[in-house]
Amino acid sequence: MVLDKYTAKKTAELLLQIKAINLSPKNPFKWASGWNSPIYCDNRIILSYPSIRIFVREQMVKQIEELYGKPDVIAGVATGAIGIGMLVADLMNLPFIYVRPSSKKHGRKNQIEGQFSKSQKVVVIEDLISTGNSSLMAIDALRSEELEIKGMISIFTYGFDVSYNNFRDKKVDFHSLSSYDYLLEQALDIKYISDDEFKILKNWKKNPNKWSI
Question: pLDDT at position 104, please?
């Protein structure tokens, strides 16, 4: 769910500007899943642009405070959300932890890195949501340590129905600064894409795992 249209469209414009998001409806990308996709997103690029990472950090903090007040801990999902999660925690003067996809095979074999205590209230930061499966694995890891999940905030979501269903099934409150629908709206407004390209991009979201040009 996106809270603020201005933030959603501004975030989308900035991601396009720095090529954290690339749209290529006529020459699609191949995702690791094997899907053909007219969009590729790498939000880690944000960290290389001070003014944009500050904007994203401030908008995330604003939404966290509006939705959840002040949690006890900020958690980032490794690896994409470690950087932005640390920035959010720093601005809120809160402890930061991060969650690996699985436990380390050596040393202390941690899956969660950093200091925390049971029953602490946590807001989880994610950079990108597709199906939500990897994000919810991080939620499961935090819950297994008896941490209380207040919600999750991402920079961008594709807005697939399956992701909303997955978050609902796990009873996780989820919001995003921007989404695929707002991205297309903004891309058309600033003439980043044509009307024909808009139609192709819009059609992809209806059935992304079977889409082709």
Answer: 67
Residue 172, pLDDT score: 97
Q: How far is CA 124 from CA 11, 27, 97, 119, 130, in A?
A: 19, 34, 9, 15, 16
What pairing do the DSSP bridges indicate for beta strands 148-157 and 121-129?
A: parallel
Residue 197: which of 38, 42, 41 has the closest Cα? 38
Measuring CA to CA, which residue among 128, 127, 55, 60 is closest to residue 94? 60
Residues 132 and 180 sit within 8 Å (Cβ to Cβ): no
The structure's pTM equals 0.94
CATH of domain 5-199: 3.40.50.2020
Q: How far apart are CA 122 and CA 119, in angstroms?
A: 9
CA distance linking residue 165 with residue 131, whole number of Å: 9
- Reference 147, options 106, 88, 98; nearest CA is 98
Q: Each residue of 148-162: pLDDT tens digit?
A: 999 999 999 999 999
Does residue 86 have a pLDDT over 90?
Answer: yes
Per-residue pLDDT, averaged over 68-74, amounts to 97
Helices (H), ranges, the chain: 5-17, 50-68, 82-92, 133-144, 161-169, 180-189, 195-206
What's the token pair of residue 178?
A: 């921007």
